[in-house]
């Protein structure tokens, strides 16, 4: 019989293993990392908003990436920083489920956004004469709406399937809450949850990987065949940055999810890769795109100069 999760029970996250002497450095490092993530991503958002030159499909799609990155970082860092200071790893069940929802939303949203950006680059490089006809404002709205609806609906279903159960254990095996670790706290039959999670993992992660592979093979083919070295260099530079961002998220998240299904997998490896999913992409995404995409880098510089001038004035 399924019952609702009780909010009075506290769960315990895996210990951080920080010594007393390392509490202050860890607190400073965690706080600075979170603030930098928020600053870099807000900077990218602001640069895209204020620069009319960036009001193009590629940058409008990119605009969604910092939003999900900040969502993932905010789901993870504030509680982590609190835990470092208090050395208290307890978290309420509603807070734990909310954290799991936000982190899964961040991961799924990022993959879909990155695959849509790959499609945009594919059309721009491989079918340049059809670009304006394909990436119309109407189609762009449909792509962005689909990204958010697919992510929201799949993650809500994931959490609702989990919330049917009453948890019989309280020790979360990971450093943050996620669906696989929460399912380990359930003593009922979770075959439906496991099957749904496997299907969603194959569809979203397998589907986005398929899109990336196809579009980049076509882009590579076009770049090899083109007779314009400057165009080829710019295309490879832009797409190379995009590919690094995607593979960083895809590899770490897939290995982490698979490790949860293999009993003999190292808990340490799973925790390290799991944490890397919510730290590295939000931190490096704005840096990689800000440095490698010339138009965005110039817009960020102009925005910072105007901000400094307005503050001095």
CATH architecture: Up-down Bundle
Main β-sheet description: 2 strands, antiparallel
Number of strands: 2
Overall geometry comes to: globular
As laid out across the biggest beta sheet, the strand order is 1-2
Features:
313 residues; mainly alpha; 10 helices; 77% helix; globular
Describe this structure in words.
- The structure is a single chain.
- This protein has one domain (10-312): Rhopdopsin 7-helix transmembrane proteins (Up-down Bundle).
- The model is unreliable at 1-6 (pLDDT under 50).
- The protein is an all-alpha fold.
- The protein has ten helices and two strands.
Summarize the structure.
This protein has 313 residues and is mostly helical. Helix content is 77%, strand content 2%. The chain has a single domain, classed as Rhodopsin 7-helix transmembrane proteins (Rhopdopsin 7-helix transmembrane proteins), CATH 1.20.1070.
SSE topology sketch:
Elements: E1 10-12, H1 23-50, H2 57-86, E2 90-92, H3 93-126, H4 131-134, H5 137-163, H6 179-183, H7 191-225, H8 229-260, H9 267-292, H10 294-312
Antiparallel strand pairs: 1-2
Helix pairs in contact: 1-2, 1-9, 1-10, 2-3, 2-9, 3-5, 3-7, 3-8, 5-7, 7-8, 8-9, 9-10
């Amino acid at each position: 019989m399924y019952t609702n999760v009780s909010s009075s029970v506290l769960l315990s996250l895996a210990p951080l293993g920080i010594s007393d002497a390392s509490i202050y450095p860890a607190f400073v490092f965690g706080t600075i990392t979170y603030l930098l993530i928020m600053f870099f991503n807000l900077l990218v958002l602001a640069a895209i908003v204020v620069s009319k030159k960036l009001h193009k499909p590629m940058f409008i799609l990119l605009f969604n990436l910092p939003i999900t990155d900040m969502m993932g970082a905010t789901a993870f860092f504030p509680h982590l920083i609190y835990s470092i200071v208090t050395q208290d790893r307890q978290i309420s069940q509603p807070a734990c489920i909310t954290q799991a929802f936000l982190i899964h939303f961040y991961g799924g949203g990022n993959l879909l956004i990155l695959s849509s950006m790959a499609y945009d680059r594919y059309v721009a490089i491989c079918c340049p004469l059809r670009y304006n006809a394909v990436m119309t404002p109407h189609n762009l709205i449909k792509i962005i709406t689909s990204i958010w609806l697919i992510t929201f609906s799949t993650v809500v279903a994931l959490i609702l399937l989990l919330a049917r159960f009453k948890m019989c254990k309280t020790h979360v095996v990971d450093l943050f809450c996620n669906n696989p670790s929460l399912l380990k706290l359930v003593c009922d039959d979770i075959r439906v949850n496991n099957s749904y999670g496997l299907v969603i993992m194959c569809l979203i992660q397998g589907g986005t990987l398929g899109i990336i592979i196809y579009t980049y093979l076509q882009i590579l083919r076009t770049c090899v065949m083109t007779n314009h070295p400057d165009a080829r260099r710019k295309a490879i530079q832009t797409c190379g940055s995009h590919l690094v961002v995607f593979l960083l998220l895809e590899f770490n998240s897939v290995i982490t999810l698979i490790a949860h299904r293999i009993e003999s997998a190292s808990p340490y490896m799973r925790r390290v890769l799991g944490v890397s999913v919510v730290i590295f992409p939000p931190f490096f995404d704005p840096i990689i795109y800000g440095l490698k995409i010339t138009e965005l880098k110039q817009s960020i510089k102009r925005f910072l100069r105007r901000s400094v001038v307005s503050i001095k004035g």
